[in-house]
Amino acid sequence: MKKALIICAGGMSSSVIAKKTTEHLQSNGKEITLDATSASQGATTIAKDEYDLYLVSPQTKMYFANLEKAANKTNKPIVNIPPQAYVPIPMGIEKMAKLVEENI
Questions:
Q1: How far apart, in whole angstroms, are the C-alpha atoms of residue 53 and residue 71?
Q2: Which of 62, 8, 63, 64 lies closest to 38 in space, CA to CA?
Q3: Among 8, 15, 31, 56, which is most exposed with the fewest C-beta within 10 angstroms?
Q4: Domains in the chain: boundaries
Q5: What pLDDT score was predicted for residue 13?
Q6: How far apart are CA 51 and CA 94, in angstroms?
Q7: Phi and psi (nearest 5°) for 54?
Q8: E strands in 11-103
Q9: Cβ neighbours around 14 below 10 Å, total
Q10: What's the CA angle centered on 41, arms 4 and 69, to 5 degrees?
């Protein structure tokens, strides 16, 4: 099972998106789960090296450089989430799922 982590401002909106994207991926036969955490916990969580992919939300892209340094130490990919993939509606979830599949 592959695991991806969404890093966002507070972790609330990303928790909903993570859950819906996980459901979408698994209903399509993909063994991938998504979790979410806040930007303040991002680097600490990345350092634990428990995920295969890190996704940075649009509202926290200003932290990308620091988070990328942490991800590089674990040799795991990290990507910015485009705004159109960060909405908890079917079209947004499909775009998020595609982003995860392309990078994990």
A1: 9
A2: 8
A3: 31
A4: 2-102
A5: 85
A6: 21
A7: -120, 135
A8: 32-38, 53-56, 78-80
A9: 27
A10: 70
Overall average pLDDT of the 11-16 stretch: 84
The CATH homologous superfamily to which domain 2-102 belongs is: Response regulator (3.40.50.2300)
Q: Which tokens is 46 given?
A: 């990345």
In tens, the pLDDT along 33-89 reads 999 999 999 999 999 999 999 999 999 999 999 999 999 999 999 999 999 999 989
Tracing tokens 């993909």 back to the chain, one arrives at 30
pTM higher than 0.85 for the full model? yes
CA angle in degrees (0–180, nearest 5) for 61-35-81: 30
- 67 close to 46: Cβ distance less than 8 angstroms: yes
Whether 12 has a pLDDT exceeding 70, the answer reads: yes
Other Cβ atoms less than 10 A from the Cβ of 73: the count is: 12
33 Cβ contact list (under 8 Å, min separation 6):
1, 2, 3, 4, 22, 25, 26
